[in-house]
Design brief:
By secondary structure, the chain is of the alpha/beta class. The chain is built from 21 helices and 23 strands. The strands form 5 sheets. A 10-stranded mixed sheet has the order 3-2-1-4-5-7-6-8-9-10, sandwiched between helices. It is elongated and about 85 Å long.
Amino acid sequence: MNFDDIDISHKTISFFEKEKFSCFETANSILKDLTGIVDFFCNKDDFSQLERIYKINQKIVLKNDVEYGDFQTNTHLVKSVCNLLQKKNVNPKILIEPTCGKGNFILEAIKIFSSIQQVFGIEIQEKYLWFIKFKLLDYFLENPDANKPQINLYHRSVFDFDFRQVYNQIQGQELLIIGNPPWVTNSTLSALNSKNLPKKSNFKNTKGIDAITGKGNFDIGEFISLKMLDLFSQENGHFAFLIKNSVIKNIVFEQKTNKYPIADIEKLTINSKKEFGAAVDSSLFVCKFNSNPEVTAKEFDFYTSKLRVSFGWVNNKFASDIEKYKKYQHLEGICPYEWRQGIKHDCVKIMELERINGGFRNALGEEFELEEDLVYGILKSSDLKGDIVDIPRKYTIITQKRIGEETSQILEQLPKTKSYLHRHKEYFFNRKSNIYKGKPMFSIFGVGDYSFKPFKVAISGLYKQTKFTLVKPNGTALLLDDTCYFIGFDSLEEAQNIQNLLNQSETQEFIESYMFTDSKRAITKELLMRIGLVNHSVNHGKWKYLTLF
């Protein structure tokens, strides 16, 4: 190990200069007595680097390593987390941190929980482990009479570490699993060519098109959290992880199926921008092990301890605000219309067009002419702000009327369109999604008879607002992209009635009672299908009113 990029204090350097350890074994023995760390030096090669330590005369601060999804936890937040747990009468004898980073949680937990007798820290980055060791040495040099648990640090990935060696040493003692696992997804780390990934598996058992279109992607923090719950939730103790809000929602959602023996589930929201400089909604997730399984959680403000809301399962339905949901749960049902997602093509630069000078211009700045046969106005999430939309900003080429339809025959009749698409065929070949594999050239996705209905009631899937917009044709039907959800109608009157019903205050309150605004996509098809619409009665050939179940 090269110590050049490790933050080592002058106090520690002076200590090694004074001791002048004669051998590897002696150094480890003395350092274990002083710090509690088992095998401070894992091998003779590391020990031989001591001479280089003596020559270091300034601190070099470690940077977070994006390869591993690092958002290191600042000392102030760590202290606040440990103090909060102490107020909850958490008194662990065993501390486990499965991704211990630079060791802030380990050090502060040792300071605050005098009951700790043994510590287990796992970290994939070797330089971080040395950072922890020297930091602990600093602390015990200044505080020789402080509580000194046995500290076991492992240079391993959490994904392949054998936790049986930890499990066998717990022996029913009070346990605290604490930490801040990576805030990234498996696909993000894969894109960075990271080695810090679990073995390839569909651990959430997504099937068919869900797995193909992205629901098979999962959060690394969620994977680690569930692994810890699988291994240790039947022991006595507590769990406290700083994780994304979406992960907490998923854990509580899946608790109905998983039935982990956890209770007193809390989500304590933090200011991620302030604490980590990250634009991610995150919280401290806390629960108690070895309890009757609970399927609801309370959300608090981390800084004020003020209760915000309770969320989770109620009457076999999942709600973001249990009290509000109980007020409007009579509106729960199964929508008789099928909500659809819009067109997906993954070729924005050449398929998203503007009209100009009697022709078209793409995102590359190219101007050209096309036959009008396959050109349709298309709306994006940002277009769905008003009550009614009937004029598009953008246009696109719709090469198919149904998924998998051959495209060659229709293009033969449209030489300008065919020429344009073939000039840019590399964009289609370079699409990474598996949904296009084995499909005709220039295929699109999310297309069917429903796409061409003249009237639509639509909503953005990207924004947090729940207002529904009426989409009217402009010569031909206006289509929507895959960031939007919609119902298609042949009748303007029917579309208007559905829009009015969906925008009623009672309906809006109902949707908000089970919508999680901090999700990456707050609006989903699953959410919309819970709105139970029904044509209640007709009066003189006109809609009298609609109601909800």
